[in-house]
Amino acid sequence: MNEAAKQHSAYKWLEKSLETIHRANWYRSVKAIAGRPGAVVELEGRKVINFASNDYLGLAGDERLIQAAVAATQTYGTGSTGSRLLSGHRELHKELEKAIASLKQTEDALIFSSGYLANLGVIAALVGTKDLILSDKYNHSSLKNGAKLSEAKVIGYDRRDITDLTAKLHQYRSQYRRCLIITDSVFSMDGDLCPLPELLSLAEAFDCMVLVDEAHATGVLGNTGAGCVEHFGCTGKELIQIGTLSKALGSLGGYVAGSNTLIDFLRNRAPSWIYTTGLSPADTAAALAAIRIIRAEPQRRKRLWQNVNILKQQLAKLNLLPSQSPIICISLSTPAEALNLAEILKQANIFAPAIRPPTVPTSRIRISVMATHQPEHIQQLVKALKLNQKFMAYP
Ligand SMILES: *Cc1c(COP(=O)(O)O)cnc(C)c1O
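Above: inputs. Below: predicted complex with pyridoxal-5'-phosphate.
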């Protein structure tokens, strides 16, 4: 391209935009991890203790999941070769959907290629232009974009704020046909929980559907690992549960769980399920193996929570965001401070990333605890954080 053409390129704004991102300290790039996932991983040639993973139970590197994926690949090949309604459906998919429904104690479930696609497809199928969505302002990107895609009227309510939600229901509910309340169950960048029992009673009072995203709760919360719904004693109540196979379940994919009617409807109406290729045999089999392990080995969840409680106790003096999950965030005042602390931790062989705007409104170091962290891993993190408390000194 000659100089004159470059001047007038329709793509020139991209560079400018990137410069702005750099200047705000918002720039992000990928970092390669070598080898299998686990509590310790190799990051850019350095062995680090991993506090950045969603693999809460340490299943993504588990030999049994790997063997299940290999066996399924040998039997069914690498790809599903079509959408589920055409040539892409295997018995294995049905088996996984039954296992999810059984864990969640719902009538049925439907698996998607990712949790993100599950939210897009389900929300867009359930509501449209005549309808209202009330969305927690801290919801995950996939919930927000699902709401946009649906073309329903979207109104945000303040984070976990029942009073604000009630006021908005009084103000707007009667102007719309259907209403859907959508929320993360464990807030993914904060670690606290949605007020599910209160949301469900409000929904009943105002004739609304409720969709909860159990991405960070499945396998982690509740007596049997069924998630936040179980944790709050809401099992069996009528609601729509979304989740992912890619966090505690160590695989890839997403799901929705609920009534037979809901799932049957979604098989006919969810575009991100109908018009995409069925989940690969390997991912399906790995997730199925993970669910069996979650049910057979509750000690994994127990160890996870022991680690969470030890770490919370030891960090009690730092400025932690409120958390009721294995996601523990240290609040910092600027993106630069968060980046700085992440770098210092990395020098101490600890991988705990800085999370900054626009992902979240305020900067933080986000720590995710795993069942497979050993006591010395936790102690090393605590030591490094205590040595660097000066970086966290602010009101
Ligand atoms: C990770 C996450 C998703 C997306 O799940 P994927 O399977 O990774 O696409 C959706 N919702 C929430 C709350 C998440 O944290």
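The two ends are 53 Å apart (CA to CA).
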